[in-house]
Amino acid sequence: MPLLEADRVTKTFLREGHARIHALNGVSVSVEPGEAVGVVGESGSGKSTLGRLIIGTHRPDSGAILFRGEDLGRLDAKQLRKVRGEISIVFQEPHAAFDPRWTVGSIVGEPLLIHRPDMSGRQRRERVIQALRSVTLDESMYDRYPRSLSTGQAQRVGIARATVTDPKLIVLDEPTSSLDLSIRAQILRLLARLQKALGVSYLLISHDIRSVRVTTQRTVVMYLGQIMESGPTDTILSAPRHPYTQMLLDSETTIHPRAQRRVPAPLGEIPSPTQLPTGCFFYSRCPLRIDACAAAPVALRTIAPGHEVACIRVDATARGAVGTPESRIAVPADAAATSAVS
Amino acid sequence: MVTDTPLLSVSDLYVSFPTPRGVVHALNGVSLEVHAGKLVGVIGETGCGKSVTARSVLGILRPPGRIDSGSIRFQGEELLEMSERALAKVRGAQIGFIPQDPIAALDPILRIEDQFANVLRAHRPISRKRCRDLARVALERAGIAGPDRVLRGYAHQLSGGMAQRVVIAIATILDPTLVIADEPTTGLDVTIQRQILDLIAQRFRTEKRTLLLVTHDLGVVAEYCDEIFVMYAGKVVESGAVQRVFGRPSHPYTRLLIESVELRRFDTGEERPSGLLDLVNYARGCPYASRCPLADDRSRSEAPEIRELDGRMVACHHAEEVLAGAAPRS
Predict the structure, then answer these.
(1) Between chains, do A251 and B190 touch, taking CB under 8 Å as contact?
(2) Which of B205, B247, B271 has its CB closest to that of A150?
(3) How much is the ipTM here?
(4) What is the pLDDT of residues B286-300, one digit of tens each?
(5) Whether residue A191 is found in the same domain as residue A319
(6) Domain for residue B318, yes or no?
(7) Is the minimum CB–CB distance between B219 and chain A shorter than 8 Å?
(8) Which positions in chain A touch B162 (Cβ < 8 Å)?
(9) Is the pTM above the cut of 0.90?
(10) How far apart are CA A135 and CA A117, in angstroms?
(11) How far apart are CA A100 and CA A328, in angstroms?
(12) Are B248 and B310 in contact (CB under 8 A)?
């Protein structure tokens, strides 16, 4: 049984009495015990909304979030509290997430007060120090205040807090987005190491498709509140089959640039989530679109074990793994946009 | 080596920010040269002084920042000795600016067309109608289809990508020789980033404009720039042609950045403590020594001078070792 399952969840928000924003449009994701799953996508993809549904700050309009097979929407307050102790979250801006008047010790220890009320003060302190050590912070941090921490240290405090109750699932919401490059690498490695050591599951939400490489085994690519592609992280990164995933990967810059980009520069911008397209959600920006794409909704199809793609032109995207010269995608003349500067 | 006079030449620039907690020495002798027609990247992490350098050139240092010493020459003229009036003519007209947050950079209560008019009419005596015509063309060249609707609208109606196109159109409307862009795509999605950078690079190449691009993103520099300056703790630690520097770094900090972006190395040392750099201690040694795996007594006691090595400039006592250890990449 999956540890966590989002089953065809939808979520809409009303924007200041105006139009209804369709943030999630039937998303199903599962996370197995001990598995790390990455959710990637750009602004407006719905990835953060998905995270909020899972940690319980929002409820789905339809569909269900199941934890160990139990529908979170059907649990009573007591049962829900127990589950909350098993799902924790790490936020993007560590400093913003902490009360500046609290010491590191009380920040990290707070979840224990709620979920482990049986612990004595001494036990709690020991557990907090253990959690700090596991993120390579020493005991002297215990009495420090958030203001005196560097961003990297603060994020490690956030991770210590998220692991202190021995959760089964940690939702990581853009945990490295506000960090400098060299610190980002440290935190990603720490997360990968902790996951192995603790056997915990991760749901890593990120706009940075590269950061899923070191930390996750499976990756889900979202666009406009739908899943475009999901599969083993290695496959998604080395041989993506949805044109959106290919465009996303190709738009990432590298320090050893290819002579030429493999796919043309992306067209336009993400459509408004208030007026969803009738057919494929990616139609307006897709270099491979044909009329049939706009005609009817496109469902995820399994193209290889564990690899699903929502694209009716999936045959046209198979040109060998991205990264090889034969992987250039044929582009209709009208969609040929700017190419990169050599 | 290029021998012609640089378009922009910053030399030995010192900038500090007096604060209640002490003086923050943001720039500690920054020197860089930008040659006409080049796309030049300035890179480094938070607090390295890359934005302060850009803002010093533009004359828009945030208070309480002050230039303590040094020189900023543009087209051979010393900007730090110019009158306010002369400076105002240079800025905007000859040096354009593309800031990080385009929506914040635009005036929220002015129509976009009025913002174009303000810039144009500050420098040229032209009619409103002529302004609108010029703005329309500028927006089209910034890749905006249907510019009239944008011109009549306000900043908040634009997406981040559209707002940055508008800012680029405004920054280039007076045909500046040099444009300084400070993290122009930070905060934008990668597909939009690519559109914006493709636009800037292609246009600047054809229009023979010079770009000083401040960014924390090595990939952006690698994909779009000719030359790079790597900054650390208010100094340039390595500079040269992008392919040479990234292909075979000679400063341990450049090497660290490359390994971090490739996620090849993770034991990247502790961050530089944010905030106050003690200028007395600083002057004694290499600013990178506290994080550097190669640091020795000399690094801690003697600040390395910037010097030429293997066709680039580097400030490190151990640059030969770094260079020797770096396998050349094809």
Answers:
(1) yes
(2) B271
(3) 0.83
(4) 988 888 889 999 999
(5) no
(6) yes
(7) yes
(8) 269
(9) no
(10) 24
(11) 51
(12) yes
